[in-house]
Automatic annotation (TrEMBL):
A Pfam match: DeoRC
Keywords, in A-Z order: Transcription, Transcription regulation
Protein name: DeoR family transcriptional regulator
Organism of this sequence: Spiroplasma corruscae
GO molecular function: DNA-binding transcription factor activity
InterPro entries registered for this protein in UniProt: Carb_Metab_HTH_regulators (IPR050313), DeoR-like_C (IPR014036), DeoR_HTH (IPR001034), NagB/RpiA_transferase-like (IPR037171), WH_DNA-bd_sf (IPR036390)
Domain HTH deoR-type: 3-58
């Protein structure tokens, strides 16, 4: 198969699906792995697709575009504050808490009470600083590499550290929720962190305003059997 034809097939397949793993692309389009890797690298450089760990995502799907965390912070502020207040009611004194990176979880970090004496873990430097400003003393920042766009700490070291911890309660940032209540994020590294936190939590809550409903991002991180959603509805 000529390279131009492969490119056309790959871009069309990725655009139709939003995201596809290398294995899926190779199997469906019958392109050898070594050839596919070279093709994806070239297509990524030419801005036809976005090459991610283990696969590729489309540039055309609005639902999977990732905003800078400062841009997200300014969206739906009142809804996020309502969600944060509802989430606060779930927290009990002396519990261990995981606070995921994200704009809605940021508003929760702003109002967690010092008097509750919680042990708080987070993969967000912004959240850690916000908690410290509130007088929270037991703040634990996970190791790893900082992803500047979302202000999230991610990577192998983050996963390794998380495997050692179990949480009484966790609050997870969500980018999208489809009609069957599957939950999505835009980044595979962040998805792995969310999955592990959910698995290692007695109770796990996803914080998401209504703009996230009936949309779909490119990496699934959980479903309704694993995660209860807190939204802004009274």
């Amino acid at each position: 198969m000529f390279k131009e034809k492969r490119f056309e097939l790959i871009v069309d397949f990725v655009n139709k699906n939003g995201y596809a793993t290398n294995e899926t692309i190779s199997k469906v389009l019958k392109i050898p792995f070594t050839t596919l890797r070279r093709d994806l690298n070239e297509l990524h450089k030419k801005n036809f697709i976005v090459k991610v760990h283990g696969g590729a995502k489309t540039l055309k799907e609005k639902s999977i575009l990732e905003l800078n965390y400062l841009e997200k912070m300014g969206d739906n502020i009142e809804q996020k504050k309502i969600i944060a207040e509802k989430a606060l009611l779930c927290i009990k004194p002396n519990e261990s808490i995981f606070l995921d990176a994200g704009s809605t979880t940021y508003y929760l970090a702003k109002i967690i009470k010092k008097e509750f004496n919680n042990k708080i873990y987070t993969n967000s430097i912004l959240h850690a600083q916000t908690l410290a400003n509130n007088g929270i003393e037991d703040i634990n920042i996970l190791p790893g590499k900082l992803k500047l766009k979302t202000n999230a700490i991610v990577g192998v070291e983050t996963i390794k550290a998380l495997r050692k911890y179990y949480f009484d309660i966790s609050f997870i940032g969500i980018n999208a929720i489809d009609s069957e209540y599957n939950f999505y994020t835009t980044d595979e590294d962040e998805s792995e962190i969310k999955k592990l936190v959910i698995q290692n939590s007695q109770f796990a809550f996803g914080l998401a305003d209504k703009s996230k409903l009936k949309s779909k991002s490119f990496v699934k991180c959980g479903d309704k059997s694993q995660l209860a959603v807190i939204d802004e509805e009274v």
